[in-house]
Amino acid sequence: MLYHPELMVYVWLIPVFLFFILPGMIMVPHMVFQLAARCVTYFMRSATVSAQSRDVQNENSLEKRRSPRCCVSGVVADVTDGINSCTGLVCNISKIGIGLMDLPEKIMQKADKLSIIIKGHDGHYPMYLNPQWVDNKGSSLRIGGLIENVPTDWEIFVSSRLATN
Hints:
This protein is of the alpha+beta class. It has 2 domains: 1-64; 70-164, Thrombin, subunit H, CATH 2.40.10.220. The chain has helices at 5-63, 152-164, and strands at residues 70-71, 76-80, 85-93, 97-104, 114-119, 124-137, 140-148. A 6-stranded antiparallel β-barrel has the order 2-3-4-7-6-5. A hairpin with a 4-residue loop joins strand 2 (76-80) and strand 3 (85-93). The longest helix is centred in the N-terminal third of the chain and has 59 residues, at 5-63. 16% of the residues are buried.
């Protein structure tokens, strides 16, 4: 009378439900909520950090300038690292530094010093450049650096450009 096979089938499902199905029903929504909260926190933090780092970089780059610079156009630079050579554009100049853009990535593989020849409207200016920063934009590089042993004719060229700006 107490023995019913159909009831025994349902009785063994009680521990299965309590130990496997119920925790799964509780944990899956909890894990999804935790993942969503971490994603929101990560993206909010990365947006804040990138904005702060941009501000710090802008402040630091302005503080580190020892001489005024000016933007130039139509000035080309032949650049070599001793192995590879290429042509890039000069984007800004100062008496002690220069900014180059549109350079291929291969030029900065193992270079501590670059040999450059600036081809301006007033002449050619050979010099050595010690790279201070490199910015990789897709397939081209932007490089900023200090000129080693600044030539006198370069100082005259920069002074004339600064006077016209």
